[in-house]
Amino acid sequence: MSQILHLTSERCSLVIKVDRNAEIIHWGNRISQIDEDLLLATERPVSQARLDVDVPLSLVPEMGAGHFNAPGIEGHRDRSAWAPVFKVVAVEQGEQQLVFQLEDQTAQLLMSVNIELDYATDVLKKQVSITNIGEQPYQLGKLSCTLPLPQHAVELMTFHGRWSREFQTQRLSFSHGGFMQENRRGRTSHENFPGMFVGSKGFSEQQGQVWGVKLAWSGNHQLRADVKSDGRRFVQAGELLLAGEVVLEKGESYSSPEFYGCFSNSGLNGVSERFHKYVRENIVSFPVDKPRPVHLNTWEGIYFDHRPEYIQEMATEAAEIGVERFIIDDGWFVGRDGERTALGDWYLDETKYPDGLEPVIAHVNKLGMEFGLWVEPEMISEDSMLYRAHPDWVLGLEGYHQPSGRWQYVLDLQNDDCFNYLFERLNDLLTRYNISYLKWDMNRELVQPGHQGSPAVHGQTKALYRLVDQLLAAHPEVEIESCSSGGGRIDFEILKRTHRFWASDCNDALERQTIQRGMSYFFPPEVMGAHIGPDEAHTTRRCHHINMRGMTALSGHMGVELDPVRASDEDKAGFKRYIALHKQYRQLLHSGRSFRLDTHDERQHVYGVTDENDLLITVCQLAMPDHALPAPLRISCVEPDARYKVTLVEMPETSFQLMKQRPSWLDKTLILTGDNLREVGLTLPILDPESALLLSLERI
Ligand code: DGJ
After folding, report:
1. Amino acid 612: pLDDT
2. Ligand 1: residue whose CA is nearest its atom 10
3. Does ligand 1 come within 6 angstroms of the Cβ of 330?
4. pLDDT of 366-406, one tens digit each?
5. Is the pLDDT of residue 348 over 80?
6. Which of 225, 526, 551, 615 could lock 610 by a disulfide, CB 3.0 to 4.6 Å apart?
7. Pick from 413, 406, 419: which is nearest to 452 by CA?
């Protein structure tokens, strides 16, 4: 007997038709009520020269039911039960939640599908679980979450990247065939960020219907978007399981990672602002509700050259420019004089620090700053005491020699002795020293991820979560940054147990503009580590004036990544100014609604944040402007009837190459109504390439 179920949120509806199986028939704008005739109205015809029955795009599409695209489940029990077909046996409906119980008695499998729609943010969460009730083990090959989309979702925006170039986007047409991304790197990866957007024709920052999806998982994954030959389409994501990786004994279950989705009628901005709100309310939790402290991280300042007196001098300068948390990066532990040695030996190097770490920490604390320390717990160097004692702790496969990465190997976290050693070392560091912050790095991919001969990315990923959780349970006041050669482990699941991401090793402000913009589609600014780097960027050798560097770091979780002792006076004054500016607007930046505006010049980024009263807008000219004059900045996110005090807060101080005469309003305060700002706009100065300005709009 068919029925229709309906979940609603503030602006969104999810309508599910339940028959033998269940099928989402609408995920989009909110519907006030479901008509009785909707069941009939949504009955599909059966097309000629195909199967004789209609095949629903069910919650977990089944090959055995006649779904010829990627199925939601794959597996077998000693070569049987490989084409299961489930039927719904129970549905529980809560206010914002539906739980479906399904079974296939022939295949001896139970399935449960949990769907939640968050009222305030419209964010949908789906998770699927499978239980083996047969006597023989069930070899699970795949269990993914599928979400259907309407036929007018015709364009994709997907992500790609590499080290120092994370979060790059590309647009693809989505009419036939589809898109598939497989991540086999064993960490979330720079290359295969597990999220994407699908939208109506020409969707943009501010316009169009857009569906955003994001898999919460830090290991291997498959993410795809498919158009069936009948025109129906769907997105699907799940863990990519290696052969034999998950074997369910009788009574055992496996749950997929959570798959998040969000629909908006107002372009990419609509989706990203809801994801941000959801992350703030449901994913990230800070031990203490306080402003995000401004960082100084020592890496690009001194690398492995650790001299405590000098580091203390750096700390003194750091405090002087306004830094609030001082982090000693790689190089502090015994034998770590370069990147080839010592990972695993998490004991202080007493030759570098003969008086211990305590005097440095005391100095940092006395200056009013918190202290943080870098670790890379999952790794081991061949040249280390740990490797010499426990070569068998390496995650690998006997009989093979796997390639190292950054001259290091991965530890097998499912080995209890290894897990306990790591916990003991980290726990000791956090107990012994006054450490408020760990920068948790992870600098290589998993090549032969074997635990006792079996594939182990799944187990390794779960064990990592367990290690972090156990450590935070013992030290709940500590914050953790997820770093992985920059942005190699940025995802919702790791963010449930960490507090900040190192977005990229690339501190080149020009590259960072694109990286940070890509990241901003899913993550709010306060979890995006953004640092002012040295004037010459270490990854690109490109040089930037402090205006471009400061303005680019300003709207994330700000920091500096350099040696302030050696910085020029001009630079130091710049660090101080941009840090002060960041602090002035930090509350708004880290709690407001972030947006990006569509621009007619693709070489210009315009983005900002608002709390419904005040707005802060950055205009960054990435390259030579497309035309001699910039287009007026039409600000759509102001209230049409409200009045605003408009001021220029920041602009490059250097002379302008492209502008002979400045608009006179730059030196004044303007009073403008919302509809003037929305429809006529504000005429901008002509910015030189690689420079940025900051505008403030205060509602009066
Ligand atoms: C890679 C990180 O991304 C850098 O920020 C730095 O911490 C180095 N590792 C240290 O080895």
Report:
1. 87
2. 330
3. yes
4. 999 999 999 999 999 999 999 999 999 999 999 999 999 99
5. yes
6. 615
7. 413
The neighbour count for residue 173, using CB atoms within 10 Å, is 12
Maximum alpha-carbon separation in the chain: 83
Axis-axis angle for helices 416-432, 457-474 (nearest 10)? 30
Residues in the chain: 700
C-beta separation of 470 from 476 below 8 A:
no
CA distance 387 to 230: 56
pLDDT at residue 653 above 90?
no
Per-residue DSSP letters for 237-271?
Answer: EEE-PPTTSEEEPTT-EEEPPEEEEEEESSHHHHH
The pLDDT of residue 539: 97
What are 473's two structure tokens? 């349970």
What's at 251, amino acid-wise?
G
Test site for ligand 1: of 337, 378, 439, 443, most ligand atoms within 8 A of the Cβ: 443
Measured in angstroms, how far is the CA atom of residue 624 from the centroid of ligand 1? 32
Helix (H, G, I), strand (E, B) or coil at 113: strand
pLDDT of residue 291: 98
User: 300 in ligand 1 pocket by Cβ < 6 Å?
Assistant: no
Distance, CA of 395 to CA of 415 (rounded, Å): 9
d(CA 607, CA 43): 44
Which of 60, 4, 53 is CA-nearest to residue 33? 4
Q: Which amino acid is at 173?
A: S
Task: Find where tokens 């509602």 sit.
Answer: 699
Strand partners, 636: none
Query: By C-alpha distance, which of 402, 553, 487, 560 is closest to 188?
Result: 487
- CA-to-CA dists, residue 298 to 564, 568, 576, angstroms: 10, 17, 17
283: number of CA atoms within 13 Å, CB side? 30
Integer Cα distance of 690 and 35 in angstroms: 55
Q: Is 299 in the pocket of ligand 1 (CB under 6 A)?
A: yes
CB 518 within 8 A of CB 535: no
Instruction: Write down the catalytic residue from 118, 122, 349, 441.
Output: 441
Q: Which domains does the chain have, with CATH numbers?
A: 59-278 (2.70.98.60), 295-593 (3.20.20.70), 595-699 (2.60.40.1180)
Over 90: is that where the pLDDT of 1 sits?
A: no
pLDDT computed for residue 483 by the predictor: 98
**Token pair for 30:** 């909110």
Q: What is the mean pLDDT of the chain?
A: 97
563 is catalytic: no
pTM above 0.85, yes or no: yes
Ligand 1: nearest atom to the Cα of 329: 7
Distance of alpha carbon 129 from the chain centroid? 24
Give the separation between CA 573 and CA 15, rounded to whole angstroms: 57
Report CA dihedral (378, 383, 385, 387) to the nearest 10 degrees.
Answer: 60
Q: Which helix (H) or strand (E) holds 429?
A: helix 416-432
Burial of 272 (0-12, 13-18, 19+ CB in 10 A): buried
Mean pLDDT, range 217-223, rounded to an integer: 98
Q: Which amino acid is at 160?
A: H
Q: Considering only CA atoms, which of 557, 560, 501, 498 is closest in space to residue 535?
A: 560
CA 141 to chain centre: 26
pLDDT digits (tens, 9 = 90+) for 484-516: 999 999 999 999 999 999 999 999 999 999 999
Question: Pick from 449, 453, 427, 454: which is nearest to 438 by CA?
Answer: 427
Nearest Cα neighbor of 293 from 573, 616, 560 is: 560
Distance CA 545, CA 690 (A): 9
Q: Which amino acid is at 655?
A: S
Q: How confident is the model at residue 655 (pLDDT cuts 50, 70, 90)?
A: low
For the beta carbon of residue 126, count every other beta carbon within 10 angstroms: 25
